[in-house]
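Run log, item B.
One chain of 259 residues. Sequence copied directly from the ordering sheet:
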Amino acid sequence: MTNNLDCNDSNASVWQVARFYRDADGDGYGAPNNWIDSCGRPAGYVTNATDCNDSNAAVKPGAIKQCGVGACAASVQACVNGVERTCTPGTPSPEVCDREDNDCNWKVDDVPPITCGQGGCMRSAPACGELCETVEGQDGKPPKVVCEWGNYGRCTPGTPSKELCANGLDDDCNGSADDASDEADWITFYPDRDHDGVGASWGAELACRQPPNTSRVSGDCDDTRSDMKPGAAELCDGIDNNCSGDVDESSVCEQSVCQ
């Protein structure tokens, strides 16, 4: 031989030192700033030095980055001239009825529902829908129905019913609750100054809308004390706690002494 340039005389296909680049993520592309000169390619190294992110196998020359959803979806080349590019989603816009996710929240046409009616007749319906119309066709051909999708949702109010008193609802859908004009439908309310849920039997009034400090139940024997009303436990205290007309009945005082 006339030279001594062979770096591996035991392998005829390997004879010259070459530069190899580290391929840490195994995507077939090496990092340009991480290299070694070797006689033969070491494991984990490649001859291509165009990887722009050697820690992510999905980022390499020719790969596409995607980001955003709906109308904000975007894509870019992952590597351009050895530099990793950032994918920036588009800007959301107000949602409209166009079968697109305009506000980029993963939902299509999620426009707030429309409402109609009032009181017990109030209803809601989707804001998006189809508007269809019949258009004339060409001469000698029947008309055809053409539909367009958009903000064409339809809302139908409920049917009014008879106004009921003291339920807090606008049953007849006129904008006011408990406003029946027929006194035959009104209810008797009793004064309940101690707010124990039971009113005094005197001073009653007839109304459709319940007046303040009143109850639909009567029978309170002392409307100044909340511990005196029908159904209360009788105590040995010298008063008629349960409004039965008797004081300390049922031997409650004898039971108290025994205890």
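Observations after the first pass:
- The CA atoms of residues 19 and 37 lie 4 Å apart.
- The chain has one helix and 16 strands.
Flagged for discussion on Thursday.
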